[in-house]
Design a protein that fits this description.
alpha+beta; 4 helices; globular; 185 residues; disordered N terminus; DUF4058
Length: 185
């Protein structure tokens, strides 16, 4: 949606421009609040459609401990994910953080008035992918969710580029390659 905006101000003509000095004044705030706005820690990969208008089509969010440690941080993370989904961006969340037993996926679903029965106990580690799509007048949320278990292979998630085209995000292959390149194990 694009809005047409134009400034609403009047330009006054000066009768003697040589004798004027320009001064700029700023309005004084009516109220000033002391606030604590938590830092947003974003570990993400964004996928843009370069064929058209560099439209954001997919985001892969990696949860950090800072995203889960406080209620405000969790709300910010969930709000960012909600905003991405509402814009039609395919979303993946990979949560490997075990020190905070909150499921940001469950909190996102709660914001959407949904629940995933497999994640009712706030599984601390998981990987999910989801996308919004329209079916007639109804909005659907397609989800692919997987609990992560130590010693088991990581899942492959779909990253949707268009309504009908996705690419696989092979988390296990990425993990193995990272371990190999960092000489871990």
């Amino acid at each position: 949606m694009q809005a047409n905006c134009e400034p609403d101000f009047e330009v006054l003509e000066q009768t003697n421009p040589a004798n004027t000095t320009a001064s700029l004044t700023h309005p004084v705030p009516l109220k000033i609040f002391d606030v604590k706005i938590p830092d947003q820690y974003a570990y993400e990969m964004l996928v843009f459609d370069t064929e058209y208008d560099r439209e954001l089509v997919a985001a892969v969010e990696f949860v950090s401990p800072a995203n889960k440690v406080t209620s405000a941080a969790r709300q910010l993370f969930v709000a960012r994910c909600f905003n991405l989904l509402s814009r039609g961006v395919s979303l993946s969340i990979i949560d490997l953080v075990t020190i905070c037993p909150f499921s940001l996926y469950s909190e996102l679903l709660a914001l959407l008035n949904c629940t995933d029965p497999e994640f009712s106990d706030s599984s601390p580690v998981y990987a999910i992918a989801c996308r919004k799509r329209q079916v007639g007048q109804n909005t659907k949320l397609d989800t692919w969710s997987s609990r992560l278990v130590i010693g088991q292979p990581l899942p492959t998630l779909p990253v949707w580029l268009t309504e009908t085209q996705s690419v696989p995000l092979n988390l296990e292959a990425s993990y193995e390659e990272t371990c190999r390149s960092l000489r871990i194990r």
